[in-house]
Amino acid sequence: MTATNDLTAAPHIDLLAETWARGVPHDQFDHLRREAPVYWHPEEGGSGFWAVTKHADVKRISRDPRTFSSELGGTFIPDQDEETLMMLRLSVLNMDDPQHTRYRNIVAKGFTPRVINKLVEDIDARAVRVVDEVVGRGECEFVNDIASKVPIQTICTMLGLDDELWPRMVELTNMMIGSLDDVGGDNAGQMAAMEVYALCDQMAAARRADPRDDIMTALVNAEVDGQRLDDGELNMFFVTLIVAGNETTRNLINHAMLAFIENPGEAERLRNDPSLWPTAIDEMLRYGASIHNFRRTATVDTEIRGTPISAGDKVVMYYSAANRDEDVFADPHRFDISRTPNDHVTFGGGGVHFCLGVSLAKAQIRATMHEVIHRLGDPQLAGPIRRLKSDFVNGVTEMPITFTPR
Ligand code: HEM
User: Fold this and answer.
1) Which end of the chain is more exposed for a tag (fewer CB within 10 A), N or C?
2) If you measure from the C-alpha of residue 291 to the centroid of ligand 1, how many angstroms do you get, rounded to a whole number?
3) DSSP states of 199-215 as a string?
4) For residue 375, how far is the Cα from the chain centroid?
5) pLDDT tens-digit readout, 318-339
6) Ligand 1 centre and the CA of 111: distance in Å?
């Protein structure tokens, strides 16, 4: 057996939580795409699921919601009891049509490129202030000092939440997402959710009494089939927007920072040629996808790439695997800020659930990374990175860095 054979030996496949705490398992994904692109993954305490790693399959599944339902079993991997499922189905993420379109339309107007363009000046100014606060120190803890700031401030402002609540909202979303990790201990996720719901109820009451030009006012006034949203529906909207608008973008910024630390030549290229920003943003998104996966449930017996799938089977789409598919991306493990075309699936594979926050996320990533690239010279890791133990969010919870103020 030669060394080359050793290198191509099959890695142990384990796509559940412990793996992600160590890093995105690209060795497993490379192997799966090549050898078993529709792989039956066993699951302790669960039914098991199909792990889908090819770009074309992620797109096909995303665009066929009749066959691959978001509502039947929800969009997270674990099997849920009926009570939890009922609650999850109050979120647009976990709805199928006709319900899904009705609810998505309520908030979609708040996220169009035109609306987001009006916010860009504010977003840019926030990013400047965030970097102003740390630039003189020559060191910072990147996640909390920089990456977390613009996303939470922006979504809180869009929802109409007061400024003094921003730090608490970061803590609460960390607890909700990090409940698999050790953030806050047992039950922390549920306690955090209760606090967010209570806040949402207060906000809803305030906006009913005193309407403003924000998403919360749109939510309390929205009607579906002639009915106003009830408290449970409002709560789920609120949580979906806060978590979707916060964790995802913050972690994308974390991974972008890491990519530039590891590829300083790309930062130099971007500083010297601002025309590269649009392709650079898409490459940051492709390379550092901040959501590992979303799940679907097959509604009928079907097949993917010739593999039979039974009605009721769980099907999990791995975005970071699809983003490194060699059939679509040349030299897929290379971080190349001028990559074109770049048909990444970081915001989903298209179709009805395609991310609502694309323009908002891109504006925030651009604003923050622009300040970082231009003002934090020669950034280096100053200690170990701490990663979130989650098979859903590609999270970094701690990243100490040093830099030379520019
Ligand atoms: C880099 C940042 C982001 C990433 C990686 C991301 C990723 C995704 C993905 C993969 C989906 C598809 C879900 C599915 O197919 O089941 C999605 C949906 C969604 N995203 Fe994002 N997202 C980001 C930022 C945002 C932001 C800033 C918002 C705004 C609040 C947002 C709001 C939503 C909503 C509401 C949905 C559900 C849409 C639906 O089910 O119809 N996202 N996102």
Assistant:
1) N
2) 9
3) HHHHHHHHHHHS--SSH
4) 26
5) 999 999 999 999 999 999 999 9
6) 11
Asked if the peptide bond before residue 98 counts as cis, ω within 30 degrees of 0, the response is: yes
Identify the CA nearest to 55 among candidates 354, 351, 329, 341: 329
Nearest CA to ligand 1 atom 40: 93
Which single residue is written with the structure tokens 């939580």?
17
Owner of token pair 């608008």 = 245
Name the phi and psi angles at 3, rounded to 5: -60, -35
pLDDT for the residue 177: 75
Closest-CA residue to 312 (of 92, 69, 87) = 69
Show the domain range for 14: 3-405
Closest atom of ligand 1 to CA, residue 319: 10
- What is the CATH number for 234? 1.10.630.10
Given 3-state DSSP classes, what are the helix, strand and coil percentages for the chain, each rounded to the nearest 5?
Answer: 55, 15, 35
pTM over 0.85: yes
Residue 4's pLDDT is: 34
**Is 294:317 a contact under the CB 8 Å cutoff?**
yes
CA angle at residue 342 from 74 to 353, to 5 degrees?
20
Establish how many alpha carbons lie within 13 A of residue 149's alpha carbon, considering only the half-sphere containing its beta carbon: 20
Residue type, 187: N
- Least confident among 184-198, 270-284, 341-355: 184-198
Does residue 245's CB lie within 6 angstroms of at least one atom of ligand 1? yes
Give me the mean pLDDT over the 240-248 stretch.
Answer: 88
**Rounded-to-integer distance, Cα 217 and Cα 91, Å:** 18
How distant, in Å, are the alpha carbons of 71, 76, 90, 288, 340 from that of 84? 12, 12, 10, 30, 42
With a cut of 60, say whether residue 199 has pLDDT above it.
yes
State how many domains the chain has: 1
CA atoms of 184 and 57, how far apart (whole Å): 37
**Alpha-carbon Rg for the chain in angstroms:** 21
pLDDT in tens, 284-323: 999 999 999 999 999 999 999 999 999 999 999 999 999 9
Please enumerate in sequence order all residues whose Cβ is within 8 A of that of 230, keeping only pairs 6 or more positions apart, or say none. none
Measured between alpha carbons, how far is 179 from 160 in angstroms, rounded to an integer?
26
Q: How far is the CA of 205 from the centre of ligand 1 (A)?
A: 27
In a mutational test of the pocket of ligand 1, which residue from 102, 248, 316 has the highest number of ligand atoms less than 8 Å from its CB? 248
Query: For residue 221, which amino acid is it?
Result: N
Quote the CA–CA distance of 381 and 125 in Å, as a whole number.
26
Phi, psi (rounded to 5 degrees) for 325: -75, 115
